[in-house]
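Attaching the record inline, Q. Sequence:
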Amino acid sequence: MTATAKKSFSIWDLANPTRFLSLADKIMPWLLGLTILFFAVGLYLTFFVAPDDYQQGATVKIMFVHVPASWLAMFAYSMMAASSIGALVWKHPLADVSAKAAAPLGAAFAFLSLVTGSLWGKPMWGTWWVWDARLTSMLVLLILYLGLIALWRTMDDPIRAGKAAAILTLVGFINIPIIKFSVDWWSTLHQPAGVITMDGSKVHGTILVPLLVMAFAFTFMFTLLHLKAMKNEIMRRRVRTMQMQAARRAASSAAQTQ
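Structure, as predicted:
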């Protein structure tokens, strides 16, 4: 067997739920440690190193929660779209589990992004909400998340629910580039991209470093919670399978008795 074949085999071998659960149990303690470490460093840098803005004052520090939450709201949906392709095209056994586990987390980050954005926008714009292109497209993302969560809950069969949710997820993915480029395509109150641009970052290092540390902290936390949610979903499906098998055996025994 070639090295490429061995690598391919090992990747698909992790599609086995039992092997995945074993790997997740090994990874999660490390993710927990990294999450705590990066949050501790990030919060220290946020409150004791990052300076106040000359115009916005201390309210600029909302950025260290708002920006990572916005990034992860889009990242979670992008992960769901990739998982949906894996479920529909390659029939990967854990793809729809990954998508379903990511939806509530993505919704939470989208909600956090909107709330912190409103708190940040009030002193800057003089209002809690405007129908700005960036804000509106982020609100659409939250609605998509809630719709997908509702879709999964309305169907008892996880396979049928996974297929329907995968199609809806892929259709809704068009909103992700709209969120990303809305500040470039339309005239909006929301400031344009500054952390990552073609000309490099426009954010000063005293702000950029704490922001990136907080972004890593949120990412590690998301990954930890996502693996935990996937583990719970796998166990939930196993329990459902055992209940269905028990019900069939009971029905078979009742039929034989009659």
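The mean pLDDT is 87. The first helix runs from residue 3 to 13.

More tomorrow.
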